[in-house]
Specification:
3 domains, five-stranded parallel beta sheet, 14 helices, 25 strands, about 15% strand
């Protein structure tokens, strides 16, 4: 997220310094055995490629755009303060003198602080109790009885890793889940959207939201059944939370491992009852040597001083919502711009919908660059406040129904704003205007791919919009990703 922010700000003419606490640019995609540092597992699979491909991509991205000269690796920012007298931001650095900047983009991502549950009588337990961040190698749990807390992507991956090492593997969970395969009809499940589908979703959400939600849940259930068959009732996967509220799990191995008995599904943990024993909510007692909590992370907005912390004044509705789980909920315009200092403080990685994280970071940082360069204007303060208030109410409503991602934004609405703010021209070319008809007439294949194909980041670099730069290689890239994900696997051409 930080890399693409540096690139887009440089492209808009800013002098940019990117601070990174690690000694590398791969972020969490760079494997490390440091238990205090979040990283992929050595066995992590991303869509259809291994994580090393992602790290290599980030390394090559930094080299291609000559970003390394603008990066300060192994440099941690400890705190960001506003110096009112100087009208600048003061960055307190680890083992270095403070430095001053006119503008600051926080691109630290949502995985900063591990969420660790507190269990009743956990002081009785003498085995290993750890967060998934500290899990690095399965052989460290050889011959152990392991309980994994949390039914999600990470829990499924760790359970699969432990097979062949642990004596027993149990996944403890309190709610059901939809489990989707990594690929469906040759397309990664993590990239299910097309531009046309986003338009359809927005129409259904506006006019028949309840019906739309039922249709999405039914479709998710159908995909799961088609991929894996009917789930065993003993797994307690159903009823599952609405996919509108809680994301499906993406795993090819979790259900096969449950079906084979290599992994057990058990109830939530009620309490620890001894040095190596715990009791479940259904009264069952388990022998256990290690408990691995795959209970997620939360953002830490306290990097910025309290006056400008966007989560410093949480909504009462958020605090009491069952799905908030002690996570901060920021108040930002479009989940990007600070409401207190929109002309100099912004965030990347705080706006999310089901799409590629890199794509969203690219779009958000393009918007920041164009606003700060003076090519686009933000609305009046009262309109930004009203948007943030509406967003807070929407997220709080979802959190009353289940675990929700605090950064979640309405996809279509947010993309329309980003398209206009960054000057990408996508809506004009894919809409019903004369420009859209001309584009369809002159390049029907590309039009079909942009509308119906993979929602690739390159789509937002196709057209000159008078603000951010178009990319001359965008057409080739859109064709390439669609060819790889559709033609190569299905034997059909878009």
């Amino acid at each position: 997220m930080g890399l693409v922010s540096v690139k887009n700000l440089l492209e808009a003419g800013f002098q940019v310094v990117g601070f990174e606490r690690s000694a590398y640019v791969g972020g969490l995609w760079h494997y490390t055995d440091d238990p205090e540092t979040l990283s992929v597992l050595e066995s992590t699979v991303v869509n259809v490629s291994i994580d090393r491909d992602v790290e290599e991509y980030l390394e090559s991205y930094a080299d291609h755009f000559q970003l390394r000269q603008h990066l300060r690796l192994s440099t941690a920012v400890k705190r960001v303060w506003r110096d009112d007298a100087a009208a600048k931001w003061r960055l307190e650095l680890d083992a270095a003198a403070p430095e001053y900047f006119d503008k600051v983009v926080i691109a630290t991502g949502p995985h900063q602080l591990p969420l660790m549950p507190v269990f009743t009588d956990e002081q009785l337990f003498t085995g290993r109790l750890l967060h998934s961040r500290a899990f690095k190698r399965a052989d460290a749990f050889r011959d152990m009885h392991v309980v994994i807390v949390g039914l999600g992507n990470t829990g499924g991956d760790i359970a699969d890793d432990l097979i062949g090492y642990a004596s027993s593997i149990s996944i403890s969970h309190k709610r059901g889940a939809v489990i989707m395969p990594r690929e469906r009809n040759g397309v990664p499940a993590t990239n299910p959207l097309s531009y046309r589908f986003l338009i359809l979703i927005s129409i259904l959400d506006r006019w028949v939201p309840a019906l739309a939600e039922r249709l999405f849940n039914r479709k998710a259930s159908e995909v799961m059944r088609n991929a894996f068959g009917d789930p065993d009732p003993s797994w307690n996967l159903w009823p599952f939370p609405s996919v509108r509220v809680t994301n499906p799990i993406i795993s090819d191995t979790l259900i096969p491992n449950l079906r084979s008995g290599a992994v057990r599904s058990v109830a939530g943990i009620r309490r620890f009852t001894g040095p190596r024993e715990l009791e479940l909510d259904d009264g069952q007692r388990l022998e256990v040597d290690a408990v691995i909590c795959c209970t997620g992370y939360k953002n830490d907005f306290k990097l910025v001083e309290p006056r400008y912390d966007p989560a410093a004044e949480p909504s009462a509705d958020w605090l009491k919502a069952a799905g908030s789980h002690d996570r901060p909920l920021p108040r930002l315009y479009q989940n990007v711009f600070s409401l207190k200092a929109p002309d100099s403080l912004a965030y990347v990685g705080t706006a999310w919908f089901v799409s590629g994280a890199f794509c969203l970071a690219d779009l958000a940082s393009m918007c920041i660059a164009q606003v700060w360069a003076g090519h686009s204007a933000l609305p009046p303060q009262h309109e930004m406040e009203r948007w943030a208030e509406g967003q807070t109410k929407r997220i709080c409503g979802l959190a009353q129904r289940g675990t929700v991602i605090p950064a979640s934004v309405p996809a279509r609405e947010w993309l329309l704003w980003a398209d206009a703010t960054a000057g990408m021209g996508v809506e004009e070319h894919l809409g019903w205007s004369w420009t859209g008809w001309r584009f369809w007439w002159r390049d029907r294949r590309l039009h079909r791919m942009a509308m119906n194909g993979v929602l690739a980041a390159a789509i937002w670099r196709l057209f000159e919009g008078g603000k951010r730069r178009a990319w001359e290689g965008a057409r080739e890239e859109v064709v390439r990703v669609n060819t790889i994900q559709m033609k190569g696997r299905l034997g059909k051409e878009l």
